[in-house]
Amino acid sequence: MKSKILVTGGSGFIGSHLVKSLVNQGYNVAVTTKYDSVYENIRLFNIWEKITIIESDLRHSNTINKINNFKPDIIFHLAAYNDVKGSFSNYSEALESNIIGTSNLLENLRNYKQFIYVSTSEIYGHQNNKKLFIESMKAHPISPYSIGKYSGELYAQMHMLHMKKPIKILRPFNVFGESQSMKAVIPELIKKFIDNKVVKITKGNQTREFNYVGNTVNFLINAMKNQKFFNNITNISDGNEISIKLLAKKIQTLTASKSRLIIGGLPERKTEIHRMKASTAKMKNFIEFKKLFTFDEGLKKTIEWYKKEKNLFKNL
Predict the structure, then answer these.
(1) Helix 244-254 and helix 295-309, axial crossing angle in degrees, nearest 10
(2) Planar angle of CA 214, 93, 89, nearest 5 degrees
(3) Is residue 185 pLDDT above 90, yes or no?
(4) What is the pLDDT of residues 112-133, one digit of tens each?
């Protein structure tokens, strides 16, 4: 019999792709959501009848009983306040969601076989730009979002190392793909180029690893199946690296946009991280490193999706 899997944040961008993949593989899947509504969880509307919906605000410990009633074998914890920029003005919500929600889960869940904490590359913050981000580095979170995620990670480490709980901690690097919020840079650029609007960016010399969501979900599921990830913190990344300037030019070309691209038209954020490059040595040591899609393939799939569905997700 296939395992029972809970995905917190299952109606979010990465979570919804993960849920669909798990359902397609025959797992019994539940998601937590604050609203039992197809409208509020539009990313899952086409599999709504195939999953268990648990109305639960993880910031309130009494709601965890609903999760225990489902009796999950495996928990993917993705629920979070995940707007880096917005977390500066909504710091209280960001910290409560990312710290209190995680601690409530870990303190109140019973009899699970594994708990997978999906952290973020943002916890590395400012490092020496010549270095890869290695799991053993000292974290330096520089936003309320990343501070909250790292605090949740520390709570998971406490349960993993000192309470001997079956926990895996994963740090995905920047993920993109279909149905992502317009708050993220790739869908924001795609929409502006599709609409032929003027596009302003910074000088764009900062680099990021952008990972197509299909690859990230594949890595997450492989990590779930692999015992080596227990009691470990592991980066999850395709190994791509591209500057924001080159990314914008690539999207402009792929969308055949008539937009005017103004490089240097925006100032850099004071907290700008100039390079985010993952060390994938540990991940490669644990699992066979195999991307399902190249970066360009993922980007083309994403652009085509937004061309068809841009009005549906314009308010995300």
Answers:
(1) 60
(2) 95
(3) yes
(4) 999 999 999 999 988 766 689 9
Mean pLDDT of 153-174: 97
Q: What is the mean pLDDT of residues 74-99?
A: 89
The pair of structure tokens assigned to 294 is 């190249």
Correct CATH for 4-177+210-239+275-293 of 3.40.50.720, 3.30.420.10, 3.40.190.10, 3.30.1490.480: 3.40.50.720
Q: How many CB atoms lie within 10 A of CB 289?
A: 15
Span 233-281, pLDDT tens digits: 999 999 889 999 999 999 999 999 999 999 999 998 877 888 889 999 9
Which pLDDT band holds residue 81 (cuts at 50, 70, 90)?
confident
Number of residues written out for the chain: 316
Six-digit token string for 193: 């180029």
Domain residue spans of the chain: 4-177+210-239+275-293
